[in-house]
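Example 4.3 (complexes with small molecules)
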Amino acid sequence: MTIGDLVNIPMPITLQPTTDFERAAVLLADADEGHERILATVSAPEHTAYLLTTADGMVTGALLMAWEADVGEIIYIAVDAAQRGHGYGRAALESLDAEAMRRGVSVLRVGTGNSSLSNIAFYQKCGYRMESVRRDFFTYITPPLYEDGIALRDMIVFRRDLPPAG
Ligand SMILES: CC(C)(COP(=O)(O)OP(=O)(O)OC[C@H]1O[C@@H](n2cnc3c(N)ncnc32)[C@H](O)[C@@H]1OP(=O)(O)O)[C@@H](O)C(=O)NCCC(=O)NCCS
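Answer. The structure with coenzyme A bound is encoded below.
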């Protein structure tokens, strides 16, 4: 238990870059289907993996980013299942804002499935807005996956515009 738990305020989250891809892939298990697929994505040279670390050193999840000159794309984010709902995901995205601005990146994007209602809620509550729909993005998955009785077919792309640095 942390002080933050006692007063119901989560600690800030530090984005700790990591090359321990196996550890990051395990932490990201709920963000996609299949360990090998996640590990390959985490290990890809165009991606940057982070451990989500509290001020007292607890690793509470992981984040995978693709950084380009002016855009950062969230590939995966996951908070440890036992720690969800305590504000760590929001705190991680707040730290991501700061990291993006440090890099001079002004736009953050993330795609999630049309059936992932919890993620659709999460990103909007954290300041992301719908930008576009990539219809049939997930229809290569056969038979289709279902969440809350909804077939996973389309990707909803969310965007967050950051204030200019300065
Ligand atoms: C998505 C995820 C990272 C959110 O992390 P979290 O620490 O539980 O989120 P937080 O506690 O910081 O919640 C932030 C906000 O989102 C909201 N939220 C989170 N999950 C929600 C849900 N299932 N339904 C509705 N709102 C939700 C919270 O209520 C909170 O809003 P509030 O502050 O206005 O109350 C976490 O649920 C997770 O790891 N999921 C599995 C992996 C995954 O699907 N990742 C995303 C795709 S890559």
